[in-house]
Amino acid sequence: MHQRGQGGAELPGAVLTGLLLLAAAGGYLLAVRRARRRNPAQGWSAWRSASFLAGLTLLAVALLPPLAPAAHDDFRGHMAQHMLIGMYAPLALVLSAPVTLALRTLPPGRARGVAGLLHSPPARLLARPAVALLLSAGTLGVLYFTPLYNTAAAHPAWHWAMHAHFLLSGCLFAHVIAGPDPAPTRPGVRTRLVYLGVAIAAHALIAQAMYGGFFVDIHAPIGQVQQGAEIMYYGGDIAELLLAAALVATWRPDRRTATAGRRRGPGIAAPTAR
After folding, report:
1. DSSP characters over 79-120
2. Do residues 72 and 9 make contact, with C-beta atoms less than 8 angstroms apart?
3. What band does 267 get if pLDDT is binned at 50, 70 and 90?
C-alpha cells in the first residue's frame, strides 16, 4: 500500500504541480497568439487550443487533490490516475499539435533544429509503432506483474518517474497512431489500426489477468485490485475508441497516390491512407 503524504498528496508538491500546469497553459496560449500574429490568414484552430487545455485539465485532476491523495492509499485511485495520465490526457495533448505550433512560432534557426531532431535516428526509432506500443502497453506487464509497482509506490521519486513514463509513453503512442504533428516514419492507416488492435488486446489481457490474480504482484486488498482491473479494462476501451476516432478524424489520403490513381483512370484501387 502507498503511504499517505507522498508525491501529489503533499501541499508543496500540489502547488508546484499546479504552477507547472498553469505555466504550460500560458506558454501554449502565448505561442498561439504569436502564430496568429505572424500569419493572420492561416491562424490557429481554437479546437487545438481547447484540446491542449483539456489535456492539462485531465492532468490536474489526476495529480492534484482529491484524486492524488486517494491514489496513495487505494489501488483504484492509482488506476484512475493511470488512465488519466497515460491515455486520456496524452490524446488531448497530442491532438493540440504542439510541435506544429512550435515550428510556426520559433525563429527559423530553432525551427530547423526542431525539424532536424524529428528526423534524427533516435526520434525515428521512437516514432515506430512497435517501439511506441512496447513502451506504452508492453511495460504494464513489467509494472504490475513484478515488484516494480510496489517499489515505485513506496518511493516518491520513483512514483513521479512512473507518472512521467505513463505520460510520455502515452503521448508517443497517441502521436504515432493519430497525431496531427509530422512523423517521418508513420505507416499507413491499416498498419496503425493493427497496432491499435494489439494495444487493445494487450490492455484487456493484462486487466483480465489482474482481475483473476494471475502473476499479479500488487500489495493491495484483492477487492481494490479487482476493481482497479475493471477501471483499466473499461476505461482503456473507451480511451482506445477515442484514439481510433481521432485516427479517422486526422486521416488524409496520400496525395501522390491519389493523383496517380486519377491519372490512370477508373478501375484503379483506392489510394493508400497515411
Report:
1. HHHHHIIIIIHHHHHHHT-HHHHHHHHS-HHHHHHHHHHHTS
2. yes
3. very low
Inter-axis angle of helices 108-118 and 98-105, to 10 degrees?
Answer: 150
Amino acid identity of residue 5, one-letter, is G
Q: Which helix (H) or strand (E) holds 48?
A: helix 46-63
Instruction: Give residue 254's pLDDT band: very low, low, confident or very high (50, 70, 90).
Output: low
Which residue type does 7 have?
G
**Per-residue buried b or exposed e for 51-84, using 16+ beta carbons within 10 Å of the residue's own CB:** bbbbbbebbbbbbbeebbbbbbbbbbbbbbbbbb
Nine-digit cell string for 268 = 484503379
Q: Rounded to the nearest 5°, which phi and psi values hold at 253?
A: -70, 150
C-alpha 172/C-alpha 175 separation (Å) is 5
Cα separation, 139 vs 217, in Å, equals: 14
C-beta of residue 226 within 8 angstroms of C-beta of residue 211: yes
Query: What's the pTM?
Result: 0.87
pLDDT value of residue 252: 67
In the chain, count H helices and then E strands: 15, 0
Q: Which residue has the cell 513521479?
A: 160
- Give me the pLDDT at residue 253, please: 62
C-alpha cell read off for 57: 485539465
Alpha-carbon distance 271 to 262, whole Å? Answer: 10
